[in-house]
């Protein structure tokens, strides 16, 4: 989990916690966190890991994930009954590549500026090593 600021169309901002999950293809945001005026109808269809169709009614495409003065533009799908408010998936990880996973967080360089997405709590070494293996395979 990391702390981030979400900015939508330069008019809506929320500071929140996000889960980074390399198993998730799209970035997800829980319905109810964002005002409906920012919703759009998605064109893509998604499925769960076991192949079931996932009902996605809305997406938000003009979202900036901000940390220490640097912002990264991303698209999110809205998901009902999400356990955590925001999940940053493979789309986010692709943008911040190359990056390093350290005990303090995920470190990347964007626009020649070093950025640390700090973990909220000290990670378990086993989980960090597993995450490193997934990223570098």
Automatic annotation (TrEMBL):
<protein>
    <recommendedName>
        <fullName>Retropepsins domain-containing protein</fullName>
    </recommendedName>
</protein>
